[in-house]
Design goal:
single chain, mainly alpha, ABC transporter involved in vitamin B12 uptake, BtuC, two-stranded antiparallel sheet, Iron chelate uptake ABC transporter family permease subunit, transport
C-alpha cells in the first residue's frame, strides 16, 4: 500500500515586506513606516519631561508642573528666575549637544557603513580637546598660546575640531571619500591628538592641568545662555541642511557605483555629508567639551527602535538629546557626588564599544 505525498505548491509565496505609507511633500516623496514617526514623537515627549524634571532639581526644588507652567510664562514668585536664568541654560545646552552629536553620529555611520564610525573614533572630539587644552595650558607662555587664550576655550575647541575635520577630509579624499579609509585615518588622527593632549598636560602647571582635565571629561556645569546661543544658531542652520541631505545619504550607503547610476554627484555629496557632520560635532564639543560615546551609541539604538536599514537622523538627534539630559540628571541627583556628564556616558558607552568589536570579530571568523 502506498500513501500519496501531499501536493507541493509550485512556488512559495513572496515574503511580506514592510512597505510603509507613501507620502509626498512637493518634490520629495517616499515611504514612511509608522515606527519612524512614533519613535521621534515619543522620544521628544520623554525629553520634555526629563528636561522639566532636571530643571526642578536643586537646592530649591520645584515640581514638574510648576516648571512646565513657568516655561509657558505662568510662573510665580522666584520660579521664573531660578528656572529660566539658572537651570534652563544647562538643560538647553545638554539637549542641543546631544542632538548635534546624535545626528553627526548617524551621518558618519551611514556614510562609512560602519557602526564604529563616530566623532570619538574619528579623532574630531580629540582635536577639540587639543585646542581647548592648548588654550588653557599655553595661554601666556607663548605667542601661539596667547592667541588661543585670547580666543577662549570654546572657540579654541571649535578651531581644533574644525582643523581635525579638515585634515580627516583632506587625507581621506581620493576622488571621493571611502568609508573604510575614513575610519583608519580617523583612528590615526585620534592617536596623534591623544599624544599631543597628554604632552600638553604633562608640561602644564598643576592648576591648569586640573582645569583642563575637567573640560576634557565633558561637563554641563556652569553653562549659561552665552554657551547655548552659538550652539542653538549652529543647530538651527545645520539641522535643516542635514535633513535635506537625508535622501542623498540613503543612496550613498549602497556604494559609489549605485549612487552614480541613480544620478548622484558622489564627490560633492560625500563632501557635504562629511562637512555637515564635522561642523555639528565642532559646535557641540565647543559648548560642553567632548561628551563621549553619545554619537556612537545613539544611532544604533535609533535604528533598532525604528526598524530601518540605516540610522535615522531625526530620531538619532532626539534620542541623543534625551541621553545627555538624562545622564546629567542622574549625575546630579542619583549619585553620591555630582560628576561630569561625560563620565556617565563613557561608563555606558565603553561596554557597548567592546560589544561591537567582539560581535564584528565573531562575524569575521564565521
Amino acid at each position: 500500500m502506498s500513501v500519496d505525498a501531499p501536493a507541493r505548491p509550485t512556488s512559495a509565496p513572496p515574503p511580506r515586506l514592510r512597505q510603509g505609507r507613501a507620502f509626498r511633500a512637493g518634490p520629495v516623496s517616499g515611504r514612511l513606516h509608522w515606527r519612524q514617526v512614533v519613535v521621534p514623537v515619543a522620544g521628544f515627549a520623554v525629553l520634555v519631561l526629563a528636561a522639566a524634571l532636571s530643571m526642578g532639581r536643586g537646592d530649591f526644588p520645584i515640581g514638574v508642573g510648576d516648571v512646565l507652567r513657568t516655561l509657558v510664562g505662568l510662573g510665580e514668585g522666584p520660579q521664573p528666575f531660578i528656572i529660566l536664568e539658572l537651570r534652563a541654560p544647562r538643560v538647553v545646552v545638554g539637549a542641543l549637544v546631544g542632538l548635534a552629536l546624535g545626528v553627526a553620529g548617524a551621518l558618519f555611520q551611514t556614510f562609512a557603513r560602519n557602526p564604529l564610525a563616530s566623532p570619538d573614533t574619528l579623532g574630531i572630539t580629540m582635536g577639540a580637546s587639543v585646542g581647548a587644552v592648548a588654550a588653557i595650558v599655553l595661554s601666556g607662555s607663548s605667542s601661539t598660546g596667547a592667541i588661543l587664550g585670547g580666543l577662549g576655550v570654546p572657540l579654541a575647541a571649535l578651531l581644533g575640531a574644525l582643523v581635525t575635520g579638515v585634515l580627516l577630509f583632506a587625507l581621506t579624499w581620493r576622488a571621493g571619500v571611502d568609508g573604510y579609509r575614513l575610519v583608519l585615518i580617523g583612528i590615526a588622527l585620534w592617536s596623534a591628538g591623544t599624544a599631543l593632549t597628554d604632552w600638553l598636560l604633562t608640561n602644564a602647571e598643576i592648576y591648569d592641568a586640573a582645569s583642563a582635565y575637567v573640560w576634557i571629561t565633558g561637563s554641563l556645569n556652569a553653562r549659561t545662555w552665552e554657551n547655548a546661543l552659538p550652539l542653538g544658531v549652529a543647530v538651527a542652520v545645520l539641522l535643516p541642511l542635514t535633513l535635506a541631505a537625508g535622501r542623498v545619504l540613503a543612496v550613498l550607503q549602497f556604494g559609489d557605483d549605485t549612487a552614480r547610476g541613480l544620478g548622484v554627484r558622489v564627490a560633492g555629496a560625500q563632501a557635504a555629508v562629511v562637512l555637515l557632520a564635522v561642523f555639528l560635532v565642532a559646535f557641540a564639543v565647543s559648548a560642553a567639551g567632548p561628551i563621549t560615546f553619545v554619537a556612537l551609541v545613539v544611532p544604533q539604538i535609533a535604528v533598532r527602535l525604528t526598524g530601518g536599514s540605516r540610522p535615522p537622523l531625526l530620531a538619532s538627534g532626539i534620542l541623543g538629546a534625551l541621553l545627555v539630559v538624562t545622564a546629567d540628571l542622574i549625575t546630579r541627583t542619583a549619585l553620591p557626588q555630582a560628576l561630569p556628564v561625560g563620565i556617565l556616558t563613557a561608563v555606558f558607552g565603553a561596554p557597548y564599544l567592546l560589544w561591537l568589536l567582539v560581535r564584528g570579530r565573531r562575524r569575521a571568523t564565521l
